[in-house]
């Protein structure tokens, strides 16, 4: 596995990025007289102060906070929450990614490159051929289910996940192909539908299958989400029908906050550790699921609520299957493997 080791830092690149961003933002505020729109949407700036910290310090994008605030608290369309997630992460997580790269933090480069290529194909396909046909309620539920399962995973597996050191060494070509499929499938589905999620998919593969250290897995997940967010915004603006009405105004208010907040999360978590932040964010992920079910209980009915709970259970079962594959690959388990396990293990051993 090719990892980038900490070497000489180039933080001046990040400072240059900040100067460029704030210069453009101030031009919009002053030159285009957009102060009133930004001030009117100040609650989103407040919410993203927390969301941006989570974006830089956890594998959960800033949309993890922005989406439920817009959709559940402000009762705006889920499609707007999705577009806002792409837009705000294109600043916050890009800023965090530049900070990570400038600090020369270790990344799972082979898997990351594969995921970026996969997302380059999958995200536009999902935006054009999947997301437009997903009803607003389903967007809410997809977000709620994925994030709840991810939160629950960390609430009962955090000590194990946080205990990984380094990363299981596989062949770089294998890692690239794994990343390619992860990027293609998650970009076309969860990311295109909700505006977030590809970071958590890549992170899950790293910590459960590859047993990667959080110091490797989280920065890698931040970079892939930044890339996918910029890609999503570019596709919507230059090829698609543009962003939902209201996204730009909320972006104006929150963008200057996340440009600093996400890198601040990267920096602070290196000092205090990742477990406390992950526990808090995991609890919020479960909380938004409960909130969604309560908000939509009349529409969902008992049957819909049970289906949502079963979907969470299915996601958790998928996480556990991935974890067992990882255990087999590193030799922690010698129990007979299923055909898919044997094929995966055989391929890795051959390399």
Automatic annotation (TrEMBL):
Q: Where in the cell is it found?
A: Cell membrane; Membrane
Q: How does it sit in the membrane?
A: Multi-pass membrane protein
Alphabetized, the UniProt keywords read:
Cell membrane, Membrane, Transmembrane, Transmembrane helix
- Provide the primary localization: membrane
Domain of life where this protein originates: Bacteria
InterPro entries to which the protein is assigned, alphabetical? TM_pro_TauE-like
Q: Where are the transmembrane segments?
A: 12-30, 50-74, 86-102, 108-130, 137-158, 178-209, 216-239, 251-270, 277-294, 300-319
Report the Pfam families cross-referenced here.
TauE
Q: Which family does it belong to?
A: Belongs to the 4-toluene sulfonate uptake permease (TSUP) (TC 2.A.102) family.
Q: Name the chain's protein.
A: Probable membrane transporter protein
